[in-house]
Amino acid sequence: MPVGIPKVPFQVPGDNDASWVDIYNRIYRERLLFLGKELDIQTSNQLAGIMIYLSIESNSRDLFFFINSPGGGIVSGLSLFDTMQAVEPDVHTLAMGLTASIAAFLLVGGEITKRRAFPHARRQ
Question: For residue 56, what are the domain limits?
């Protein structure tokens, strides 16, 4: 069996049949975003683009940003932080695993009452 991105069924509203989409597409449709590696400019741009798209799609549903990152570039982090502040929906930030350096800064960039850390998350 080839290794790749898993596919899951998803029913588009209005369609009778479900279609198979990659798991990340399905997760994004639920407004869940993940930072699971060192932050670089490409990753920052992708996450910012997804945040902007989701806020255009529905500005009343909150976004959930899960962070497990050793940090990364300051400029990349600041651009993502600015995007989090600019989008209209509230951004919940959740620390899991390691959250250090600019990733810790992004963690506190979430809506003030909507910042969380899992019990065994390590914040530095």
Answer: 31-123
